[in-house]
Model the fold of this input.
Amino acid sequence: MRGSTLSTILVVVGILCIAIAIYYIIPGFPHLFTFSDPNKSHPTHFIAFLAAGILALIGSRFARNAA
Amino acid sequence: MDLLNHLPELLQVLFLAVLQGVTELFPVSSLGQSIIIPGLLGWGNLLTSETFLPILVMLHLGTATALLTFFWRDWVELITAFFKTAFAGRLDAHPQGKTIWLIIVGTIPVGLAGLLLNGPIKAIFFSSKWPVIPAAFLCLNGAILFVGEQLRRRSEPDVTDRYKQEQAFKRIPQLSFLQATLIGAAQTFALIPGISRSGIAMVAGMGARLSHAEAARFSFLLATPVILLAGLLEVPKLFDAPTSTLVIAIIGAVVAGIAAFLSVRFLTAYFEVGRLTPFAIFCLVEGLIAFLIFAPISLGVFSLPW
Done:
């Protein structure tokens, strides 16, 4: 896979992860894959997906620089 | 607080601390052992006991601290490498640049799977009164270690010197990111009690042609953030615990940490030339014995006399 393609994929993954993180922090509607009250906000899920998103965006820089 | 009043609980925790500290790093499934051995001793399933939750959290933190202490030089280098590479946007900005990103990539699958699947897996595997399922999976763990080791033997160069045989295989920085992801993904199977995280990560690492020592080291480096974060996320459960439980939990954490430190020191030396076969045999034998004991108990044919 070319570096620029990988970089684009990682940017998309990063944005998706950050969107999922925001979904988990907003209370008041059902959250999937949660095991306490699904309508509450879920800070653990938020932190995990936010971290994954940030790491994917950093990874996209590596891929772009390597291209 | 008079510890003598809590002596039976303290002794139980000390036993569990040694068990946790040792089995977390040996490829024999700490989760499986923490269910099977207390089950054999007639203590019931301590992992689902509300009283034991704060203690288990502290035992995990003790183990993670031991891993951090043992590999502290590596972690200082790796954290420095993380920031240098992240700011430069290049993996070659630090000699350990690729290694830290291999660890991060390997941690993501097990981290997300743990977060999303731990609840349903606990509901499935912790619901039965007797640990028949962990015993069966411990046998499977033994089989995985055994097959992994047999496949490795076939790819070893035809020399008698074990050091030379091991030198023919890769070091961690030679892994690809896809291989690190697959090793990390393999670790998700260790959410099932009876499957060893370090064992399955080692077999996957050896499948990626790492040497035994490097596969073990990569497994320990992958374990550190996972165990530490899992422990830290459970810390709020300590807030409601009574002082006596907290004191016992801290003693347990220190003992688990010492046991884990000695275990990782032994294992890093052992895997310079050692193989997974003894652990495979141990898991197969223990899993089979536990299954033969617990299966009739679960069917109500007989009960433990103690």
Summary: The interface with chain A takes residues 85-86, 89-91, 101, 104, 108, 111-112, 115-117, 119-120, 233 of chain B (CB under 8 Å).
